[in-house]
Specification:
heterodimer; A: about 350 residues; alpha/beta; four-stranded parallel β-sheet; 10 helices; 9 strands; B: about 250 residues; five-stranded parallel β-sheet; three-stranded antiparallel β-sheet; 7 helices; 10 strands; about 35% helix
């Protein structure tokens, strides 16, 4: 008699036992690390706003997270994130798309500066690639470029020194400067700049475009670096605030996350140096019945973030930060989320909705 | 003769040495001085009570007695000027550096850093003295800018002379200009000023004190006569105290 090929499969391969019958706070065997993070590795973090949580927990847990662009010594910690410090390994703010990261990598390693770098608003000047790093913008375009030159020097250092890049893929939708193809983390006119439909076009990247962009990032890094690099990809579970497609935002959000998840999966399948960590799956797990989302159904609650990081540290160790927490994560759903200093430009789009 | 009160921690030593030394032209013939010292941050344990600055801890009272020649509190109306030599100088560069590196700092960030400085207890102490003694001038000096022999000075000089020297130099000059502008706008009582040491006492980069002022420095700690180590780059000598007194009091 022939047994079903599923007969000897482990519990975590069955929905009933692995999802429906398991607490969403304690998923078993959802992540199996591909390689161990070595204590001496220098870790760089980047990505969409959910990546800020990962960066914070890694730091708290004793990993060697790079900060190549630390805040000025006297700037109070409480103000640091308003100026874009202490969020990621450099002061680049949120990087929502693979194309945006590719631009940054090229600028730092090959000198290809993005076009349309300076956006203006009320006589102040904003870095279009990181419009949120100065609360009131810069005094002049020259000052902005001076800060950017310093930033890019530091990013170059980060890209050359890091042993592990943790990158959270956030969005496929972006806005593009038509003449140059430069993309931005926010639509022109949202924080600064002016939206001119003749100058800017909406882009929603396809699987192959995102895939090619990430491959191009690898190529660029491999050419410039002298040592091996590991990349840990995650997909942000935070849905789109708004879509520029003429369709329901839920469809756009699903498309975007599907593409990003598929690209991560493809790269992980093809490259030994890439691992995928399932933060997206842990938060969107139907067993959680949405409780890992705050009341706006976008922001991830503290319990959601802690559950994600518990899984991460269960595999990689160094979970001191969570183990020392007073309470285990709970499923109370009254947490507004994103309340612990997370900076998220795309949330500003809510102001444009009804 | 007008009386001047100098209040400080270990940095009081430079002034005590100056006053114990040779006459300071333009100063010693015009002013009489009292000094009140207490170690480290213990001056935060003082309180204005009417016309007096009164220690709130026994050790501060004892330090006042020892450093003033017997007085245990400061009678504010007795003085036409106060000099505070404690905690950071508003012109100290370290808070504006990225670790030990010069880099561009926006006006908003400089303002935030300076306002954090203004929230310090030492500024509150100076502010309260200024309010309680409205006819006196209050000079907040903080501690001296470190000597040009300091580790940080060497680090910054290597940047100012290194491959990115132009960017570092622009960052430094822009920073100093903006610091000066923002410090000038500090919300302080009219009779209180934040003092920058005069250029002739500073190294060419205007960030550090000339090395000659730190040699043989003594500190007002337990006995006022403890000579600092040769490599102490933070405490200054009598020449510094004399130079600062001449600078501060010339127009008073």
């Amino acid at each position: 008699m022939t047994l079903s090929p599923y007969a000897d499969r482990p519990n975590n391969t069955f929905w009933r036992t692995a999802v429906a019958g398991t607490s969403p706070l304690a998923l078993q065997d959802i992540y199996s690390k591909r390689w161990a993070i070595q204590p001496e590795w220098q870790i760089a973090t980047a990505g969409s706003c959910f990546a800020q949580h990962i960066a914070r927990f890694l730091k708290q847990s004793g990993y060697r997270v790079l900060d190549v662009e630390p805040k000025p010594n006297g700037l109070p910690d409480a103000l640091a994130s308003q100026f874009g410090y202490q969020i990621y390994s450099a002061r680049f703010g949120n990087i929502y798309t693979a194309r945006q990261l590719l631009q940054l990598v090229r600028e730092a390693l090959t000198g290809d500066r993005p076009e349309d770098l300076v956006w203006e608003k009320d006589g102040r000047f904003y870095d279009s690639q990181r419009p949120n790093i100065e609360p009131n913008g810069f005094e002049s375009a020259a000052e902005l470029l001076d800060h950017r030159a310093y930033h890019i020097r530091q990013v170059r250092r980060m890209l050359l020194d890091m042993d592990l890049l943790v990158f959270t893929l956030g969005l496929t939708e972006t806005w593009e400067h038509k003449p140059s193809g430069t993309v931005f983390p926010t639509a022109p006119g949202t924080i600064a700049g002016t939206f001119d439909p003749a100058l800017y076009a909406f882009r929603n990247f396809t699987f192959s475009e995102v895939y090619d962009d990430v491959q191009a990032i690898f190529d660029c890094l491999e050419k410039a670096r002298q040592k091996p690099l590991k990349v840990l990809l995650t997909v942000s579970p935070v849905p789109l605030t708004a879509t520029a497609e003429d369709r329901h935002v839920l469809l756009s959000s699903t498309y975007s996350k599907s593409v990003l998840r598929a690209v991560a999966g493809q790269l992980c399948a093809e490259r030994e140096d890439v691992d995928y960590f399932p933060s997206f799956e842990i938060v969107t797990n139907p067993a959680a019945r949405g409780v890992f989302y705050a009341s706006n159904l976008r922001s991830v609650t503290t319990a959601g973030v802690e559950t994600v990081m518990k899984s991460f540290f269960a595999a990689h160790g160094a979970a001191e930060a969570l183990d020392s927490a007073e309470d285990e994560p709970t499923l109370s759903g009254d947490d507004e989320g994103d309340g612990d200093g997370v900076v998220c430009e795309d949330a500003m789009l809510e102001a444009f909705g009804e | 003769m007008s009386r001047v009160c100098i209040i400080g921690n270990s940095h009081l030593g430079a002034f005590k040495l100056a006053l114990d030394g040779e006459d300071i032209p333009g100063v010693t013939e015009r002013f009489e001085f009292d000094t009140f010292g207490s170690i480290r941050a213990s001056l935060s344990q003082t309180k204005i009570e009417g016309d007096r600055l009164v220690p709130q801890r026994k050790n501060v009272t004892e330090n006042f007695r020892r450093t003033s020649g017997g007085q245990t509190d400061v009678h504010l109306s007795s003085y036409s000027a106060f000099i505070l030599a404690v905690r950071n100088s508003p012109y100290w560069i370290r808070p504006y550096l990225y670790d030990t590196n010069l880099g561009p700092v926006s006006e908003a960030a400089i303002s935030a850093i300076h306002h954090a400085f203004l929230d310090d207890w030492s500024i509150d102490l100076a502010r309260h003295i200024a309010q309680a003694a409205p006819n006196a001038q209050v000079f907040f000096l903080g501690r001296p800018l470190n000597s040009e022999k300091d580790f940080l000075a060497r680090r910054l000089n290597s940047q100012l002379d290194g491959p990115d020297n132009v960017a570092a130099s622009v960052a430094k000059d822009t920073l100093l200009l903006r610091m000066a502008r923002i410090i000038k706008q500090s919300p302080l009582p009219d009779n209180m000023r934040l003092i920058r040491p005069p250029d002739h006492m500073l190294a060419a980069n205007r960030l550090f004190t000339l090395a000659k002022y730190s040699r043989g420095a003594e500190k007002a700690d337990t006995g006022l006569k403890q000579v600092f180590k040769e490599d102490d780059t933070q405490h200054m000598n009598g020449a510094y105290g004399a130079g600062m007194l001449a600078h501060l009091l010339k127009d008073l």
